Amino acid sequence: MTTLPLILGFLFCLVIGVPVAIALAGASLIYVMVEGAQPHLVVLHRMIGGIDSFPLLAIPFFIMAGSLMNSAGITNRIYDFALALVGWLKGGLGHVNVVGSVIFAGMSGTAVADAGGLGNIEIRAMRDHGYSVDFAVGITGASSTIGPIIPPSLPFVIYGVMANTSIGKLFAAGVIPGLVMALTIMIMVTYYAHTRGWHRDARFSIVNLWATGKRAFLPLLTPVILIGGMTTGIFTPTEAAIAATAYAILLGMVVYRTLSLRKFVKVSLETAETTAIILLIVAGASIFGYLITLTKVTDNVSALVLSITEEPWVILLLINLFLLIVGCFMETIAAITILVPVLLPLMDRIGVDPVHFGLVMVLNLMIGLLTPPVGMVLYILARVSGISFERTTRACLPFLIPLLLSLALVTYWPGMVMFLPNLFYK
Protein backbone atom coordinates (compact mmCIF):
# COMPACT_ATOMS: atom_id res chain seq x y z
CA MET A 1 0.00 0.00 0.00
CA THR A 2 1.22 3.50 -0.82
CA THR A 3 0.21 6.45 1.30
CA LEU A 4 0.52 9.04 -1.46
CA PRO A 5 -3.21 9.02 -2.42
CA LEU A 6 -4.16 9.47 1.25
CA ILE A 7 -1.88 12.49 1.75
CA LEU A 8 -2.74 14.04 -1.63
CA GLY A 9 -6.45 13.57 -0.96
CA PHE A 10 -6.14 15.32 2.39
CA LEU A 11 -4.11 18.22 0.95
CA PHE A 12 -6.56 18.61 -1.94
CA CYS A 13 -9.46 18.86 0.50
CA LEU A 14 -7.63 21.56 2.47
CA VAL A 15 -6.83 23.55 -0.68
CA ILE A 16 -10.47 23.65 -1.81
CA GLY A 17 -11.57 24.80 1.66
CA VAL A 18 -12.95 21.63 3.21
CA PRO A 19 -12.88 21.79 7.05
CA VAL A 20 -9.92 19.95 8.56
CA ALA A 21 -12.01 17.32 10.37
CA ILE A 22 -13.95 16.40 7.22
CA ALA A 23 -10.76 16.46 5.13
CA LEU A 24 -9.08 13.98 7.48
CA ALA A 25 -12.02 11.58 7.74
CA GLY A 26 -13.04 11.95 4.08
CA ALA A 27 -9.56 11.32 2.69
CA SER A 28 -9.21 8.31 4.99
CA LEU A 29 -12.57 6.85 3.94
CA ILE A 30 -11.83 7.26 0.23
CA TYR A 31 -8.40 5.71 0.72
CA VAL A 32 -9.85 2.67 2.53
CA MET A 33 -12.50 2.21 -0.16
CA VAL A 34 -9.99 2.45 -3.02
CA GLU A 35 -7.28 0.29 -1.47
CA GLY A 36 -9.69 -2.26 -0.04
CA ALA A 37 -7.11 -3.41 2.50
CA GLN A 38 -9.33 -2.56 5.48
CA PRO A 39 -13.09 -2.96 6.08
CA HIS A 40 -14.99 0.28 5.51
CA LEU A 41 -16.32 0.24 9.05
CA VAL A 42 -12.76 0.55 10.38
CA VAL A 43 -13.06 4.28 9.69
CA LEU A 44 -15.98 4.66 12.10
CA HIS A 45 -14.46 2.36 14.71
CA ARG A 46 -11.17 4.24 14.72
CA MET A 47 -12.87 7.63 14.84
CA ILE A 48 -15.04 6.61 17.78
CA GLY A 49 -12.09 4.98 19.51
CA GLY A 50 -10.04 8.14 19.06
CA ILE A 51 -12.42 10.25 21.13
CA ASP A 52 -13.39 7.52 23.61
CA SER A 53 -10.80 8.77 26.06
CA PHE A 54 -11.23 9.94 29.65
CA PRO A 55 -8.52 12.68 29.44
CA LEU A 56 -10.40 14.33 26.56
CA LEU A 57 -13.16 15.20 29.03
CA ALA A 58 -10.81 17.95 30.21
CA ILE A 59 -11.30 19.85 26.95
CA PRO A 60 -14.81 21.26 27.47
CA PHE A 61 -14.17 22.05 31.12
CA PHE A 62 -10.91 23.97 30.54
CA ILE A 63 -12.56 25.89 27.71
CA MET A 64 -15.56 26.68 29.88
CA ALA A 65 -13.44 27.72 32.87
CA GLY A 66 -11.56 30.32 30.80
CA SER A 67 -14.75 31.65 29.21
CA LEU A 68 -16.48 31.94 32.58
CA MET A 69 -13.51 33.89 34.00
CA ASN A 70 -13.80 36.33 31.10
CA SER A 71 -17.58 36.65 31.30
CA ALA A 72 -17.54 37.18 35.07
CA GLY A 73 -15.17 40.16 34.77
CA ILE A 74 -12.40 38.41 36.70
CA THR A 75 -9.85 39.55 34.09
CA ASN A 76 -10.26 43.15 35.38
CA ARG A 77 -9.20 42.07 38.87
CA ILE A 78 -6.15 40.29 37.45
CA TYR A 79 -5.19 43.35 35.39
CA ASP A 80 -5.48 45.72 38.37
CA PHE A 81 -3.28 43.45 40.49
CA ALA A 82 -0.65 43.16 37.72
CA LEU A 83 -0.67 46.96 37.37
CA ALA A 84 0.00 47.43 41.08
CA LEU A 85 2.69 44.73 40.99
CA VAL A 86 4.86 45.87 38.03
CA GLY A 87 3.24 49.05 36.66
CA TRP A 88 5.91 51.18 38.40
CA LEU A 89 8.66 49.81 36.13
CA LYS A 90 9.67 51.77 33.03
CA GLY A 91 7.37 50.70 30.23
CA GLY A 92 5.06 49.62 33.04
CA LEU A 93 1.99 48.63 31.03
CA GLY A 94 4.13 46.43 28.79
CA HIS A 95 5.26 44.51 31.87
CA VAL A 96 1.69 44.49 33.19
CA ASN A 97 0.60 42.93 29.90
CA VAL A 98 3.04 40.04 30.35
CA VAL A 99 2.44 39.46 34.06
CA GLY A 100 -1.33 39.56 33.52
CA SER A 101 -1.00 36.89 30.83
CA VAL A 102 1.10 34.69 33.12
CA ILE A 103 -1.58 34.88 35.82
CA PHE A 104 -4.45 34.35 33.39
CA ALA A 105 -2.56 31.42 31.82
CA GLY A 106 -3.11 29.52 35.05
CA MET A 107 -6.87 29.77 34.48
CA SER A 108 -7.63 29.61 30.74
CA GLY A 109 -5.09 27.34 29.01
CA THR A 110 -5.60 28.94 25.58
CA ALA A 111 -3.95 31.84 23.76
CA VAL A 112 -7.22 32.84 22.12
CA ALA A 113 -8.96 33.40 25.49
CA ASP A 114 -6.03 35.55 26.65
CA ALA A 115 -5.92 37.66 23.48
CA GLY A 116 -9.70 38.12 23.30
CA GLY A 117 -10.38 38.68 27.01
CA LEU A 118 -7.42 40.16 28.86
CA GLY A 119 -5.98 41.54 25.59
CA ASN A 120 -8.98 43.80 25.08
CA ILE A 121 -8.39 45.46 28.47
CA GLU A 122 -4.62 45.73 27.96
CA ILE A 123 -4.69 47.29 24.50
CA ARG A 124 -7.29 49.87 25.54
CA ALA A 125 -5.27 50.83 28.66
CA MET A 126 -2.01 51.12 26.73
CA ARG A 127 -3.67 53.35 24.15
CA ASP A 128 -5.00 55.62 26.90
CA HIS A 129 -1.49 55.93 28.37
CA GLY A 130 0.05 57.03 25.09
CA TYR A 131 1.62 53.78 23.87
CA SER A 132 1.52 53.16 20.14
CA VAL A 133 -1.18 50.77 19.00
CA ASP A 134 1.44 48.65 17.22
CA PHE A 135 3.44 48.11 20.40
CA ALA A 136 0.29 47.33 22.41
CA VAL A 137 -0.85 44.79 19.83
CA GLY A 138 2.61 43.22 19.48
CA ILE A 139 3.19 42.73 23.19
CA THR A 140 -0.35 41.42 23.69
CA GLY A 141 0.11 38.87 20.91
CA ALA A 142 3.45 37.69 22.27
CA SER A 143 2.25 37.41 25.87
CA SER A 144 -0.90 35.51 24.83
CA THR A 145 1.26 32.61 23.60
CA ILE A 146 2.26 31.96 27.23
CA GLY A 147 -1.31 30.81 27.94
CA PRO A 148 -1.05 27.25 26.56
CA ILE A 149 2.46 26.72 27.99
CA ILE A 150 1.74 27.41 31.66
CA PRO A 151 -0.78 24.84 32.97
CA PRO A 152 -3.59 24.18 32.46
CA SER A 153 -3.15 23.80 28.72
CA LEU A 154 -5.61 22.58 26.11
CA PRO A 155 -2.88 21.69 23.55
CA PHE A 156 -1.08 19.62 26.20
CA VAL A 157 -4.27 17.62 26.79
CA ILE A 158 -4.54 16.83 23.07
CA TYR A 159 -0.82 16.02 22.81
CA GLY A 160 -0.93 13.81 25.90
CA VAL A 161 -3.80 11.78 24.45
CA MET A 162 -2.20 11.44 21.01
CA ALA A 163 1.25 10.59 22.41
CA ASN A 164 -0.05 8.41 25.26
CA THR A 165 1.97 10.59 27.63
CA SER A 166 1.20 11.80 31.15
CA ILE A 167 -0.75 15.06 30.96
CA GLY A 168 0.29 15.82 34.52
CA LYS A 169 3.96 15.67 33.51
CA LEU A 170 3.27 17.92 30.53
CA PHE A 171 1.58 20.46 32.80
CA ALA A 172 4.51 20.40 35.22
CA ALA A 173 6.99 20.71 32.34
CA GLY A 174 5.32 23.88 31.09
CA VAL A 175 5.77 25.99 34.23
CA ILE A 176 9.45 26.95 33.91
CA PRO A 177 9.41 27.44 30.09
CA GLY A 178 6.33 29.66 30.49
CA LEU A 179 8.15 31.83 33.03
CA VAL A 180 11.21 31.94 30.76
CA MET A 181 9.00 33.17 27.91
CA ALA A 182 7.62 35.91 30.19
CA LEU A 183 11.12 36.92 31.23
CA THR A 184 12.46 37.20 27.67
CA ILE A 185 9.44 39.28 26.60
CA MET A 186 9.85 41.57 29.61
CA ILE A 187 13.54 42.03 28.76
CA MET A 188 12.46 43.24 25.33
CA VAL A 189 9.95 45.62 26.92
CA THR A 190 12.75 46.97 29.14
CA TYR A 191 14.92 47.53 26.06
CA TYR A 192 12.13 49.47 24.34
CA ALA A 193 11.47 51.49 27.50
CA HIS A 194 15.08 52.63 27.86
CA THR A 195 15.77 53.30 24.18
CA ARG A 196 12.52 55.27 23.70
CA GLY A 197 12.58 57.08 27.02
CA TRP A 198 9.32 55.71 28.38
CA HIS A 199 8.28 56.62 31.90
CA ARG A 200 6.61 54.68 34.68
CA ASP A 201 2.85 54.30 34.40
CA ALA A 202 2.08 53.99 38.10
CA ARG A 203 3.61 54.69 41.47
CA PHE A 204 4.53 51.75 43.63
CA SER A 205 2.20 51.58 46.61
CA ILE A 206 2.07 48.86 49.21
CA VAL A 207 -1.47 49.94 50.06
CA ASN A 208 -2.61 49.64 46.43
CA LEU A 209 -0.80 46.32 45.98
CA TRP A 210 -2.52 44.98 49.10
CA ALA A 211 -5.93 46.26 48.00
CA THR A 212 -5.74 44.87 44.45
CA GLY A 213 -4.20 41.67 45.78
CA LYS A 214 -7.20 41.16 48.06
CA ARG A 215 -9.61 41.76 45.15
CA ALA A 216 -7.70 39.26 42.98
CA PHE A 217 -6.91 36.77 45.74
CA LEU A 218 -9.64 34.25 44.97
CA PRO A 219 -8.96 34.19 41.18
CA LEU A 220 -5.23 33.88 41.93
CA LEU A 221 -5.98 30.71 43.87
CA THR A 222 -7.14 28.99 40.67
CA PRO A 223 -3.68 27.90 39.42
CA VAL A 224 -2.67 27.04 42.98
CA ILE A 225 -5.67 24.74 43.37
CA LEU A 226 -5.14 23.13 39.95
CA ILE A 227 -1.39 22.60 40.06
CA GLY A 228 -1.35 21.76 43.75
CA GLY A 229 -4.17 19.26 43.36
CA MET A 230 -2.52 17.49 40.44
CA THR A 231 0.99 17.34 41.92
CA THR A 232 -0.29 16.01 45.25
CA GLY A 233 -2.50 13.45 43.55
CA ILE A 234 -5.79 14.85 44.87
CA PHE A 235 -7.21 14.83 41.35
CA THR A 236 -6.22 14.00 37.79
CA PRO A 237 -5.86 16.66 35.04
CA THR A 238 -9.38 15.83 33.88
CA GLU A 239 -10.78 16.25 37.38
CA ALA A 240 -8.74 19.46 37.67
CA ALA A 241 -10.59 20.84 34.66
CA ILE A 242 -13.92 20.08 36.33
CA ALA A 243 -12.67 21.71 39.55
CA ALA A 244 -11.61 24.82 37.61
CA THR A 245 -15.06 25.13 36.05
CA ALA A 246 -16.84 24.64 39.37
CA TYR A 247 -14.57 27.24 40.98
CA ALA A 248 -15.23 29.73 38.16
CA ILE A 249 -19.00 29.24 38.59
CA LEU A 250 -18.63 29.72 42.35
CA LEU A 251 -16.72 32.98 41.91
CA GLY A 252 -18.94 34.35 39.16
CA MET A 253 -22.37 33.41 40.50
CA VAL A 254 -21.98 33.26 44.27
CA VAL A 255 -18.99 35.35 45.39
CA TYR A 256 -18.89 38.26 42.91
CA ARG A 257 -22.39 37.82 41.42
CA THR A 258 -21.19 39.14 38.06
CA LEU A 259 -22.16 36.03 36.11
CA SER A 260 -25.82 36.01 35.14
CA LEU A 261 -27.78 32.97 34.05
CA ARG A 262 -27.95 34.37 30.51
CA LYS A 263 -24.14 34.68 30.37
CA PHE A 264 -23.76 31.17 31.76
CA VAL A 265 -26.04 29.71 29.09
CA LYS A 266 -24.17 31.62 26.37
CA VAL A 267 -20.80 30.35 27.62
CA SER A 268 -22.17 26.80 27.82
CA LEU A 269 -23.38 26.88 24.21
CA GLU A 270 -20.08 28.35 22.98
CA THR A 271 -18.19 25.67 24.91
CA ALA A 272 -20.29 22.90 23.36
CA GLU A 273 -19.68 24.30 19.88
CA THR A 274 -15.92 24.65 20.35
CA THR A 275 -15.63 21.20 21.94
CA ALA A 276 -17.55 19.58 19.08
CA ILE A 277 -15.16 21.12 16.55
CA ILE A 278 -12.09 19.93 18.46
CA LEU A 279 -13.40 16.39 18.96
CA LEU A 280 -14.31 16.12 15.27
CA ILE A 281 -10.71 17.01 14.42
CA VAL A 282 -9.40 14.44 16.93
CA ALA A 283 -11.75 11.78 15.54
CA GLY A 284 -10.70 12.47 11.95
CA ALA A 285 -7.05 12.53 12.91
CA SER A 286 -7.39 9.17 14.69
CA ILE A 287 -8.23 7.24 11.52
CA PHE A 288 -5.78 9.32 9.49
CA GLY A 289 -2.98 8.61 11.97
CA TYR A 290 -3.91 4.91 12.05
CA LEU A 291 -3.54 4.66 8.26
CA ILE A 292 -0.30 6.63 8.36
CA THR A 293 1.09 4.16 10.90
CA LEU A 294 -0.31 1.14 9.05
CA THR A 295 1.50 2.12 5.85
CA LYS A 296 4.77 2.63 7.78
CA VAL A 297 5.05 6.32 6.95
CA THR A 298 6.48 6.92 10.43
CA ASP A 299 9.28 4.43 9.78
CA ASN A 300 9.98 5.97 6.39
CA VAL A 301 10.12 9.48 7.83
CA SER A 302 12.55 8.35 10.53
CA ALA A 303 14.72 6.57 7.98
CA LEU A 304 14.73 9.60 5.67
CA VAL A 305 15.74 12.06 8.38
CA LEU A 306 18.36 9.73 9.84
CA SER A 307 19.83 9.23 6.36
CA ILE A 308 20.48 12.98 6.24
CA THR A 309 21.96 13.27 9.72
CA GLU A 310 22.08 11.33 12.98
CA GLU A 311 22.97 14.35 15.12
CA PRO A 312 20.09 14.94 17.55
CA TRP A 313 20.63 18.71 17.65
CA VAL A 314 20.45 18.95 13.84
CA ILE A 315 17.32 16.78 13.74
CA LEU A 316 15.68 18.97 16.39
CA LEU A 317 16.59 22.06 14.37
CA LEU A 318 14.99 20.56 11.24
CA ILE A 319 11.88 19.57 13.20
CA ASN A 320 11.61 23.09 14.63
CA LEU A 321 11.82 24.65 11.17
CA PHE A 322 9.21 22.20 9.88
CA LEU A 323 6.82 22.90 12.79
CA LEU A 324 7.22 26.67 12.43
CA ILE A 325 6.20 26.36 8.78
CA VAL A 326 3.29 24.08 9.67
CA GLY A 327 2.15 26.59 12.29
CA CYS A 328 1.80 29.22 9.57
CA PHE A 329 -0.76 27.15 7.68
CA MET A 330 -2.48 24.81 10.14
CA GLU A 331 -4.53 25.22 13.29
CA THR A 332 -2.83 24.00 16.49
CA ILE A 333 -5.13 21.10 17.40
CA ALA A 334 -5.14 19.76 13.83
CA ALA A 335 -1.34 19.98 13.60
CA ILE A 336 -0.86 18.09 16.88
CA THR A 337 -3.28 15.30 16.02
CA ILE A 338 -1.79 14.79 12.55
CA LEU A 339 1.92 15.14 13.30
CA VAL A 340 2.38 13.42 16.67
CA PRO A 341 2.04 9.89 15.21
CA VAL A 342 4.55 10.83 12.48
CA LEU A 343 7.20 12.66 14.49
CA LEU A 344 7.12 10.93 17.89
CA PRO A 345 8.78 7.68 16.68
CA LEU A 346 11.64 9.76 15.28
CA MET A 347 12.05 11.53 18.62
CA ASP A 348 12.13 8.14 20.32
CA ARG A 349 14.88 7.01 17.94
CA ILE A 350 17.13 9.94 18.91
CA GLY A 351 16.36 9.69 22.64
CA VAL A 352 14.12 12.76 23.11
CA ASP A 353 11.63 12.37 25.96
CA PRO A 354 8.01 12.63 24.73
CA VAL A 355 7.27 15.20 27.45
CA HIS A 356 10.18 17.35 26.27
CA PHE A 357 9.06 17.02 22.66
CA GLY A 358 5.53 18.01 23.69
CA LEU A 359 6.84 21.36 24.93
CA VAL A 360 8.86 21.83 21.74
CA MET A 361 5.88 21.05 19.50
CA VAL A 362 3.33 23.17 21.36
CA LEU A 363 5.67 26.18 21.62
CA ASN A 364 6.37 26.01 17.88
CA LEU A 365 2.66 25.97 17.14
CA MET A 366 2.01 28.84 19.57
CA ILE A 367 4.48 30.95 17.62
CA GLY A 368 2.47 29.94 14.55
CA LEU A 369 -0.52 31.75 16.07
CA LEU A 370 1.35 35.00 15.36
CA THR A 371 2.25 34.20 11.76
CA PRO A 372 0.05 34.57 8.67
CA PRO A 373 -1.98 33.34 6.91
CA VAL A 374 -3.74 31.21 9.57
CA GLY A 375 -2.52 32.87 12.79
CA MET A 376 -5.71 32.91 14.86
CA VAL A 377 -4.39 35.38 17.45
CA LEU A 378 -3.63 37.87 14.67
CA TYR A 379 -7.27 37.89 13.58
CA ILE A 380 -8.48 38.36 17.16
CA LEU A 381 -6.04 41.21 17.84
CA ALA A 382 -6.99 42.92 14.57
CA ARG A 383 -10.64 42.82 15.63
CA VAL A 384 -9.96 43.93 19.22
CA SER A 385 -7.61 46.79 18.27
CA GLY A 386 -9.48 47.93 15.16
CA ILE A 387 -6.42 47.88 12.89
CA SER A 388 -5.83 45.87 9.72
CA PHE A 389 -4.63 42.27 9.71
CA GLU A 390 -1.48 43.30 7.81
CA ARG A 391 -0.61 45.97 10.37
CA THR A 392 -1.27 43.52 13.20
CA THR A 393 1.14 41.07 11.60
CA ARG A 394 3.87 43.72 11.32
CA ALA A 395 3.29 44.76 14.95
CA CYS A 396 3.82 41.20 16.22
CA LEU A 397 6.89 40.52 14.07
CA PRO A 398 9.56 42.01 16.42
CA PHE A 399 8.20 40.00 19.34
CA LEU A 400 9.00 36.77 17.58
CA ILE A 401 12.61 37.36 18.71
CA PRO A 402 12.07 36.58 22.43
CA LEU A 403 9.71 33.74 21.52
CA LEU A 404 12.28 32.12 19.22
CA LEU A 405 14.94 32.57 21.90
CA SER A 406 12.64 30.78 24.36
CA LEU A 407 12.08 28.04 21.79
CA ALA A 408 15.84 27.53 21.46
CA LEU A 409 16.19 27.21 25.25
CA VAL A 410 13.30 24.76 25.47
CA THR A 411 14.69 22.68 22.60
CA TYR A 412 18.32 22.45 23.65
CA TRP A 413 18.01 22.60 27.44
CA PRO A 414 15.89 19.55 28.31
CA GLY A 415 16.94 19.76 31.96
CA MET A 416 14.97 22.99 32.32
CA VAL A 417 11.86 21.38 30.85
CA MET A 418 12.12 18.10 32.75
CA PHE A 419 13.11 19.50 36.15
CA LEU A 420 9.60 19.73 37.63
CA PRO A 421 8.25 16.52 36.02
CA ASN A 422 11.22 14.60 37.43
CA LEU A 423 10.74 16.29 40.81
CA PHE A 424 7.01 15.62 41.22
CA TYR A 425 6.54 12.44 39.14
CA LYS A 426 9.31 10.08 40.20
Please provide a written account of the structure.
With 426 residues, the protein is mostly helical. It is built from 21 helices and no strands. The chain is globular. It starts with a helix and ends with a helix.
Features:
single chain, mainly alpha, 426 residues, 0% strand, 78% helix
Q: What is shown here, in short?
A:
The protein is mainly alpha-helical. It is 78% helix and 0% strand. The chain has 21 helices and no strands.
- What fraction, in percent, of the residue positions are helical? over 70%
Number of strands: 0
Mass-distribution shape: globular
* Mean pLDDT figure: 83
Output the structural class: mainly alpha
Largest sheet, in brief, is:
none
Strand content: under 5%
Contiguous runs where pLDDT drops below 50 for at least 5 residues:
none
Order of helices and strands: HHHHHHHHHHHHHHHHHHHHH
Rg, nearest Å: 22 Å
End-to-end CA span: 42 Å
Count of spatially separate domains: 1
Number of helices: 21
Task: Chart the SSEs and their pairings.
Layout: H1 4-15, H2 20-35, H3 41-51, H4 58-71, H5 74-86, H6 92-105, H7 111-128, H8 133-144, H9 154-163, H10 167-195, H11 206-231, H12 237-255, H13 261-294, H14 297-308, H15 312-329, H16 332-349, H17 354-368, H18 376-385, H19 389-396, H20 400-412, H21 414-424
